[in-house]
Each structure stands twice: as C-alpha cells, then as structure tokens.
Amino acid sequence: MLDQPIAQIKGLRVKFQTKDGPVLGVKDVSFDVNPGETVCVVGESGSGKSVSSLSLMRLVEFGGGEIDGGELMFSRRDGDTIDLANAKQESMKEIRGDEIGMIFQEPMTALNPVFTVGRQLTEGLRVHKGLNKKQAEERALELLRQVRIPEPERRLGQYPHELSGGMRQRVVIAMALACEPRLLIADEPTTALDVTIQAEILALMDRLKRETGTAVMFITHDMAVVAQMADRVVVMFRGNKVEEGTVEEIFENPQHDYTKALLAAVPKLGEMRGKAYPEPMKLMGVEGQNLDPIKGTDEVLLKVENLTTRFDVKGGFLRRTVAQVHAVEDVSFTINKGQTLSLVGESGCGKSTTGRAVLRLVDPQSGTVNFEGRDVLGFDAGEMHKVRQDMQMIFQDPFASLNPQMVLMDQVSEPLRNYGLASGSELQDRVASLFDRVHLPRSFMRRYPHEMSGGQRQRIAIARALALNPKLIIADEAVSALDVSVQAQVLNLMMELQADLGLSFLFISHDMAVVERVSHQVGVMYLGRIVEMGPRAQVFENPQHAYTQALMKAVPIADPRQRKSEKDLNFKPIPSPIHGLDYKPEPSEYLEVTPGHFVLTTDSGY
C-alpha cells in the first residue's frame, strides 16, 4: 500500500463557459503525487496550474469551470481509493480540509475577517475530528507554535487584519495542517511575502512534510522556490503539461523549449559578479538585443539628506496623537543621471514611504530633497506641479493605479493633456510611439485595463510614466507581481529606456536577484534607516551589516544543488517602529568601509 501514489491525475480536462463559447483551461494533464514527496507545478499565469489544484479540491465548479474528462484518483486514510472527479459534494465536504488541505495564494481572502484566528483554526478540528472546545483550542495553540508565530496565546483572540502578511500566511498554513492531511496543496503560498519570511515558510513546510509524511503539491511561478522545494517538477504551458522530471533533470537538462526559456528568464543571485555596471538579460528567441552595460554619468540628479517621515497614531477619547510611527529615520542618498539606486528591505522597513516622500506624496517631517539643485520640500503647489513633470512614479499594483473606466489611449495621454504638451493628432502620435516604446501593439489603445494581463498593465503604467519625458522614475515594486518571463521583459525594457533616454531610477524592491541585475548603487533598509549603502558589487559581494548578511542568506537560488537548510536562517523578529512622543532617536552615523561603501554604526535594532 505504501508505494501507491496519494493522488493520481489522469487525462484531466477542465472547460470554462465564456461569452465566446467554451474554453479549455486544462487539456489532458496527467501526473502523480507520492507520499512524502513535493511535486512542484510551474508555469505562468493562465497556464492552468491553479485550475488543476482547484479540480482536485472540486472547487473549480464554484469558479465557473467544469471537469470535462479524466480521473482524479485519491487514496484515502482508510485505504479506499476514490475518483474525486465523480465524488458527491457530501463526501467532498468530508475530504476537504481533513484529508486534503489547501493553502491559498492570498491569505487575506482565505481568512474570514469577522472571526478570530482561534475560531477559524478550531472550526475544522471540531467538524472533522470531533474535538470539544478545550481540546480544539489546545491543538490550535500547538499548531501556531509549530508555524512559529510569536505570542501564540494572544494571536488566538486576534482578527486577521491585526496580523502582518507573513503572519496571516502562517495562520493559513496552520489551518491547512490542522487535521494532518494526506495531501497538502499550496497555491503560490509565498508570492506576496518578503525574502526572509518566504525562506522561513518554505523551511517550515519542508520540515512539516518530513515530520508528518504528507504529500505536497506546490504551485508556483518562482523557479528559485522550485529549486529549493521540489522533488519532482511538472511544467505547464497553456493548459498542457510540456515536461516532467526530477528537479535536477529540469534545471540541468531541460528538454522543452518553453522550459529552457523559463529558466533563461530567471535572474540568479551571483550572475552579476565581476561586472561593474548593470546590463540587460539575454532572453531566448529575441533578435537583435542590445546587451551593452549601462554606465550612466557622475552628474548628481537627486540628493536626499536626513529625510525623516513619521505618522501620528491617534488614540483615546479625544483622538489625540499618542505615539508616532517612525517610518523613515534620517535617510540620505544621491542618485546620478542615467543610474539606478535600489532600496531593498522587508515590508514595513520604510522603502515605499521614502519613495513617496521624495515626490511629496507624503510630507516628510524634516530633511532636504534636492532635485537638480533645488529643494523640492520648499516648493508651493504650482512649483510642485511643474517639477512632477520630471519625476514620475510607477506603482506596485498596476490595476489599482489605472482607471477602470478609461480606455488606455486616454490614460497614457492624460499627463500630456494635463501639462498642455500636445493635442489632437500630435497627441495620438505621441501615445502611439509610447505604445511602440513599451512593446505593445497600437490596437491596444482602445482597450480597457481589465482586458489586459498583469504584465501588459504594468507596461501601460510605464508608458504613462514616460509620457512627460521625466528625468527620474520611482519604481515601487514594479515587477514583483509579474511572471518570470514577463518580469524579465519589463526589466529589460526599463534598462533599454535608461540607456536610450538617460533616465534615472529609484528602484524599490525586495527581490535581491532583480536588484543585483539592475542597480548601480544599493541601499539596504531596516526599520526606517539605511543600514548599508554602496556600489552594487560591494554590497552584494562584501556585505558588512548583520542584517544585509541575513538577507543575502535568505535568498533562494535557482539551483537545486544550493538549497538552504533551516539552520541557515536565524531571523530576529522585527521590533515595532511605533514609539512614544518623548522618544528621541539617535542620528544615523556611518563608517566608510571602502570608498563609497557605508555601514551604519548607530544601533539599528538588529
């Protein structure tokens, strides 16, 4: 019995009814998942990987799909084998959450906002395992300890919105593991998380799999995560399985062109060693690529000094300010014309607030922001309007930053109209050339944002930021939500524009491999301060601050022979940035290790 696979997917076909007729989301896909094994299903958005997992849970019907053919054999605890494709919903209710656990991609939507964490954790235990209230609560506490949540007793009484993204994701994992399922399906469980939290959650899932013998079906588009987790890999493309093999075979000897292209598009940490300047990635199947290094100039465009931004925390009956969030604390840096400075760090370290403060989208407490020799912080509304022509921003979520009711032509032309730079047919021509510039067909000008994929929307956001020929673009996590190949194209596009137009970027990201690829200078942020700053080669190849070293250790590398073990990861929980009104932080003091490479000597709390 032991060598029998826990789940066998045979010839699965799933179709969706659309207004243009039926569409096949998955065509004839087959693979097995064995006990104690992690099978990674990889592919890009729309390749059918999530649809396969939702079919196993029989949740695909609730999303407008139907299983059109094939068998989904599942070996149950009692030794019976059942075909889930034809199982009744009653027996599915017993299996779901008990014998098959699922970790969804978005922890906030997977948790119920009106129930406490404790209530949601104990529900499955009471339904499937028949435990009483007290037993269920004890088991819930034990689960929270297993997923290493600090102060688990307090967390049981909290609501999902009171937890950070990484904590919520751990609660979802604890819920999926509550009944010790035979099969755990993890759908992109770490996409939205920071490097350090991702590393901990991957190590946690690996440990729990070893301890409980659970089979894991892991769905992701991140090849570095695959290298870290997988025993076997199934590659999907447009609803078909194109390749399957052990993790070593797939990484070291890929057979299918699509797998090769997917691996070529992954920026690997360490690839830029020995190169002084950033250069575009070589993509497969793209002719005539310009791969020259981008040097930039020594001329200073932006100089930020002692920037401090705090937010008030109101409380009490009269809503007085009772404390302050120290979001950005005494930050200084310079950006040269035609160069990229990247700010890296975890969620909540203050990197996005820094970018917004430079553009005065949030008003800093103190400091100076010199743009071309003039302090932006002293500008009135009219001068600010003028200078924003030269400083533009690309936001993290392109869907939220585009207007759903306007066609793309109008969204890209809006800045030009706003500044009175073009009208009539000249406006049309300018927008058309911007579409060419970001490699989108001109026919898309009549489309709405919802008709585009994530990568295409991000290109529209870039086209709109370029409309005014700015000198500086602040890119806030501009590629974090994109598929590997789309991310590579967008990064290359940004570097091509930098080479052609002499643009400067302030690039905000938590993806170290991407940062290594695009940066001239790198600043590492922790708790509102820059703890280390210098040329990219210095910071990556000779990290000096303890936090930078921990961050580098956590990055998964797209090579199955360089896996991280749990003992490599020893992160300290991040202290709170909220302080009382009487708190006086020390100024940031730096030691210059080598010319241009600075390390914070003030106590950073790490």
TrEMBL record:
The keyword NADP does not apply. Its EC number is 7.4.2.10. Pfam families: ABC_tran, oligo_HPY. The keyword Glycoprotein does not apply. It catalyses: glutathione(out) + ATP + H2O = glutathione(in) + ADP + phosphate + H(+). Residues 9-263, 302-552 form the ABC transporter domain. It is found in: Cell inner membrane. CDD domains: ABC_NikE_OppD_transporters. It is a peripheral membrane protein. One of its GO terms (molecular function) is ATP binding. InterPro entries: AAA+_ATPase (IPR003593), ABC_transp_ATP-bind (IPR050319), ABC_transporter-like_ATP-bd (IPR003439), ABC_transporter-like_CS (IPR017871), Oligopep_ABC_C (IPR013563), P-loop_NTPase (IPR027417). Keywords: ATP-binding, Cell inner membrane, Cell membrane, Hydrolase, Membrane, Nucleotide-binding, Repeat, Translocase, Transport. Its main location: membrane. Belongs to the ABC transporter superfamily. Glutathione importer (TC 3.A.1.5.11) family. The complex is composed of two ATP-binding proteins (GsiA), two transmembrane proteins (GsiC and GsiD) and a solute-binding protein (GsiB). Part of the ABC transporter complex GsiABCD involved in glutathione import. Responsible for energy coupling to the transport system. This is Glutathione import ATP-binding protein GsiA. It comes from Parasedimentitalea denitrificans. The lineage of its organism: Bacteria, Pseudomonadati, Pseudomonadota, Alphaproteobacteria, Rhodobacterales.
